[in-house]
Amino acid sequence: MAAGYLLIGTGFSLNAFAHTVPALAACVVIFTLGEMVTMPVSTAYIAGLAPEHLRGRYMGAYAVTWSLALICAPQMGMRLFALAPSALWLCCGALGALAAGIIFPFSRQGGAYGPSDTCTRPEGRSHCAKTARTSGAVNTT
Question: How far is 120 from 114, CA to CA, in rounded Å?
Answer without folding.
Answer: 10
